[in-house]
Write a structure and sequence with these properties.
The complex is a heterodimer of chains A (about 325) and B (about 650). Chain A is of the alpha+beta class and about 325 residues long. Chain A has six helices and 17 strands. In chain A, the strands form five sheets. Chain A has a five-stranded antiparallel β-sheet. A four-stranded antiparallel β-sheet of chain A has the order 1-3-5-8, with no helix packed on it. With about 650 residues, chain B is of the alpha+beta class. Chain B has 24 helices and 20 strands. The longest helix of chain B is centred in the last third of the chain and has 28 residues. The two termini of chain B are about 70 Å apart. The chains are: A alpha+beta (about 325), B alpha+beta (about 650). At the A-B interface, helix 2, helix 3, strand 6 and strand 7 of A face helix 5, helix 6, helix 7 and helix 20 of B.
């Protein structure tokens, strides 16, 4: 209850402080004014223990008790500087984010570059959700540390990482120092492959229009007029340059072997179900090393093979029907 | 959970080590079974960490806690009080450490450890104890740092070094708080007093009581004289006056006599300050005979015993004025003198008969006392190890063994005088003392405990008569250790040391203790007031103290914080770059300064054109620099870099 209240309060304050400033350009250096610091729960408990120590010292007139109490109190105060020091001047930049399938865990990498003294037990967590699980790491002197912030990808499309909280309680846990960064990092989430799609729809081959090559060793055959849906790769740019108009190159004679994964061919299913099956087939075709093309409502990708082609197809499926 | 990783074997071992260190001084005072429970709990906890076992279930922990608490109740017979409180705290600490499940749980034993450190100060506030507790706190902070490392394990160095820095950096602010935090006098609430055995004089004297002290090197009190130190034979430090004879022992007269007794000083006053070690008894010591009570909390009994209103449980400093020559109690009535004539007539029949016979032979009390002293002088022997005495100790001592210590002499002397109808009483205290040449203070040790007597004469009043002096004048003229040689191990060593080096060390150590007592242990409300007035605070009251405190704490904190911040943000230059920059500064003396945009080779070429000689000398340095700095494997071998740095240091432009 209290935790959630303070959480929301802190979010509001952070929103207000960082209004219209996100996303930021990396690297973000955690300078002094970006770092907040407050006693942690352990810190308040420690203060309570100090009061008990002081009462015991007063009551028994223990001069050395006073000395010990004040030593610990001063150490607590000094620890605040150390906790702050554990965060200040770290340079934060976003790392690579690999696309995932819906249902998997996306990992946002964050790189902390440390130009000075070693930093220990620095944590990073997503700031905008309650009880986010933090990731911890150390950054040795003049080196950097990479953190992977996990986040469950539920839906296809772009998954936003949101604001991140970088925090630490090192060295003695009495203070919690934190700072926010937001690079507007996103992770591309492909639709969840639907195994109920079954085997590859080889019967779809015949329906292909036979105007794209099957393999990389393209056999150029002829030119024909451009039609809507042709990809830029098929356009005969040289012919266009010669002033012959917009023509499209026609390849190969093995058109009947082309595998076309066609969105429209999947009747009676919802959009997400169709996308799930198409995703499954893309992965299957890739695994079987069988060239495949993808035909969606607004675009088609000519049959090919290879990781780049697969990623193009998966991206088209991921973003199908979503606003850019 | 991540929290689990904090309770690694190394972290647990550090925590247990801190606990063992902080409990150790208590272990000697604790009942053996409490120590046993602690060791068992610690070993169990270590075992759990070592073999990644589960901690005991809550019901088992509860059962153990109940049994142990009940045991403590039976052992001490109460729930409240210092001894039982410390025992319960230690047990709780060990059981809490046993049932730790996650990082958060580890904070409680560490914080309890800090509290236990303070309880040790109830028993001892010496320099050594202070240093020892600093080490304990260091270990606990090192453990705390280990617990706050997440996913990686801290090495020994990574624990001790930052923990040590944290504590060292805390010291300036600690001192500010210590000297400026407003002190209270007295307790917030009264605590039940516990029985404590402390070396020192008690309220009774039986044969063997004082000779038991003669081996103790413990300091009883220290004295600082405003003027010169009186002769050793005048240094009678008056303590409990024992007027009642009760079988074998002499006791304090139970009805504290508060009647004013006439006191006529017959000599110059002597001013001095006594710093008394806590002895848990109400009496204070002063040079025979104190004239005035130092403050309201001190009063005199009719027999000139100086008393505090509460037992002295903390180091106590007080100023006294005494006169070495005096006349007191000349006009006492027979009724007032009666208590000093009573004795237990059932015991020591021979001594009593002797006293009566003595009176018949010598009607003049002074002659009687003289002849009795002459007998002591002739026939008796002073020894630290007197033979054991039976049911009639005075009879056996006076007629048979004739060997004894001051309490034998004083006791038998007073008894025989009383039998002879001469008022007399036993006075206990200390005699002598040792001057520390460094501090010029007189140090009085328990070994200097002494007993003598006071005899009443109608014309003189109470007169101090020391029968021990009759037996062994050296004991009084030279002091204890010179007469009997070394006391204890420490003095044995000192005696064997011909160069006097150990004696110097001993005196320095004592001087350090004096400063420690003055500035740390004895830093009371009054001392603080004097100190702050000395600093220039005009009115020492709560408000101004609080303002001073806040200003001082924030400024020291700010200075330390700035220092830490600057060190955190500054990036140290690589040594090779720093050395090259030094080289350029040296070369700039030729008038040819390196431009900011200039690389080493461009700069050298420009130098070559203007100052070919110097450029020639510097050429190998530039070569090395370029090779080290811009070679494919950056940095180069470290010894090359060091060599380069040294060559730059030796380089001269002229």
């Amino acid at each position: 209850m209290l935790a959630s209240l303070t959480f929301h309060l802190r979010q509001r304050i952070a929103d207000w402080i960082f209004r219209a400033r996100f996303p930021e350009t990396p690297p973000v250096v955690l300078v002094q004014r970006r770092i907040f610091i407050l006693p942690s729960r352990t810190g308040y408990f420690f203060a309570f223990v100090l009061v008990l120590l002081l009462i015991a010292s007063i009551n028994y007139s223990l001069s050395l008790g006073y000395l010990l109490t004040f030593l610990l109190a001063s150490m607590g105060g000094i620890a605040m500087f150390h906790t702050f020091r554990n965060l200040v001047r770290l340079a934060v930049s976003p790392g690579k984010v690999e696309p995932v399938f819906a249902g998997e865990t996306a990992r946002f990498s964050i790189v902390l570059a440390n130009p000075t003294l070693p930093r220990y037990a620095v944590g990073i967590k997503r700031a905008q959700i309650l009880d986010a699980e933090p990731e911890f790491g150390d950054a040795e002197e003049k080196s950097s540390a990479t953190f992977q912030i996990p986040m469950r990808a539920v839906k296809r499309g772009y998954l936003k990482c949101g604001r991140l909280e970088i925090f630490t309680e090192y060295p003695i846990g009495l203070f919690h120092a934190w700072s926010y960064v937001d690079f507007g990092m996103t992770c591309l989430v492909y639709p969840k492959p639907d195994p109920s799609a079954g085997a590859l729809p080889l019967d779809m081959r015949a329906r292909g229009e036979g105007n794209v090559p099957v393999r990389g060793d393209e056999e150029f055959q002829s030119l024909r007029a451009y039609r809507a849906g042709d990809t830029p790769r098929q356009i005969a740019w040289k012919a266009l340059a010669r002033g012959q108009g917009l023509l499209v190159k026609e390849f190969g004679s093995t058109a009947s072997a082309d595998l076309w994964l066609d969105y429209d061919a999947l009747h009676g299913l919802s959009m997400e179900e169709r996308l799930g099956r198409l995703t499954w087939w893309v992965m299957e075709a890739e695994r079987a090393q069988m060239p495949y093309g993808l035909k969606l409502f607004d675009r088609s990708i000519r049959p090919m093979l290879g990781p780049r082609h697969r990623d193009d197809c998966l991206q088209a499926l991921a973003l199908y029907g979503l606003k850019a | 959970m991540l929290n689990q990783t904090a309770l690694t074997l190394a972290n647990i071992t550090w925590l247990l080590a801190g606990m063992a260190f902080v409990i150790a001084p208590h272990a000697l005072r604790l009942p053996f079974w409490v120590t046993g429970v602690c060791v068992a709990a610690g070993a169990w906890r270590w075992w759990i960490a070592r073999y990644a076992l589960r901690v005991p279930p809550w019901w088992l922990m509860g059962l153990i806690a109940l049994v142990v608490a009940a045991g403590a109740r039976i052992e001490y017979g109460r729930w409240f009080g210092r001894e039982v409180g410390v025992a319960l705290l230690i047990i709780m600490l060990c059981l809490k450490a046993l049932e730790m499940r996650m990082k958060r749980d580890a904070m409680i034993p560490i914080f309890m450890g800090f509290f236990l450190a303070i309880t040790n100060f109830m028993y001892s506030q010496t320099i050594l104890m202070g240093l020892y507790m600093f080490v304990c706190v260091w270990i606990f902070v090192a453990a705390l740092i280990g617990f706050n490392r997440i996913n990686t394990e801290a090495t020994l160095k990574q624990r001790l070094v930052p923990a040590g820095w944290l504590l060292l950096q805390a010291i300036p602010m600690m001192l500010v708080l210590f000297f400026l935090f407003p002190r209270l006098s007295g307790s917030l609430w009264s605590m039940p007093q516990d029985e404590r055995s402390q070396t020192g004089l008690t309220d009774s004297m039986a044969p063997g009581d004082i000779s038991r002290l003669s081996v103790s090197e413990a300091v009883a009190f220290r004295v600082e004289f405003d003027g010169p130190v009186p002769q050793t034979e005048d240094l009678y430090w008056r303590g409990p006056v024992l007027s009642e004879q009760d079988g074998r022992a002499w006791r304090i007269y139970p009805e504290a006599i508060r009647t004013k007794i006439e006191y006529l000083p017959q000599g110059p006053p002597i001013h001095y300050t006594v710093t008394l070690q806590p002895h848990n008894k109400p009496w204070l010591f002063a040079l025979d005979l104190p004239a005035a009570a130092p403050d309201d909390n001190v009063f005199f009994l009719g027999d000139f015993q100086m008393r505090a209103r509460a037992p002295v449980v903390n180091l106590k400093a007080y100023e006294v004025t005494s006169h070495l020559r005096y006349s007191v109690g000349t006009g006492l009535t027979t009724k007032q003198l009666q208590p000093y004539l009573n004795f237990d007539s059932r015991l020591n029949p021979r001594a009593i008969a002797y006293g009566k016979a003595l009176r018949e032979a010598n009607p003049d009390p002074k002659v009687l006392v003289e002849s009795l002293l002459a007998r002591y002088n002739k026939e008796f022997e002073y020894t630290l190890e007197p033979p054991r005495l039976g049911a009639n100790p005075v009879d056996e001592f006076f007629f048979d063994t004739k060997k004894g210590y001051c309490e034998h002499y004083a006791g038998s002397f007073v008894l025989i005088l009383r039998a002879a109808r001469i008022p007399a009483r036993v006075v206990t205290g200390y005699q002598g003392g040792e001057i520390n040449p460094i501090t010029r203070q007189l140090v009085v040790r328990q070994a200097e405990a002494h007993a003598w007597s006071e005899v009443w004469f109608a014309d003189l009043g109470w007169v101090r008569v020391d029968p021990t002096f009759a037996v062994s004048p050296l004991r009084i003229n030279r002091g204890m250790s010179e007469t009997f040689g070394p006391i204890g191990v420490m003095n044995n060593l000192i005696d064997a040391d011909k160069l006097g080096l150990l004696r110097q060390i001993a005196f320095s150590w004592d001087a350090m203790n004096t400063q420690w007592n003055r500035w740390v242990v004895g830093f009371s409300q009054d001392r603080q007031r004097d100190f702050l007035e000395g600093l220039g605070m005009r009115e020492v009251d709560w408000r101004s103290m609080l303002i001073w405190l806040i200003v001082a704490v924030f400024s020291t904190g700010g200075v330390v914080g700035m220092f830490l911040y600057v060190r955190a943000v500054q990036t140290r230059k690589e040594p090779i770059v720093a050395a090259y920059e030094r080289l350029c500064v040296k070369l700039a003396k030729t008038g040819i300064e390196r431009a900011l945009h200039e690389g080493p080779l461009d700069y050298w070429q420009r130098l070559q054109r203007c100052e070919p000689n110097i450029a020639g000398n510097a050429a190998p340095l530039f070569e090395t620099y370029v090779a080290l700095r811009y070679a494919t494997h950056a940095g180069g071998p470290s010894h090359d870099v060091r060599d380069f740095v040294n060559r730059v240091r030796r380089f001269r432009v002229d």
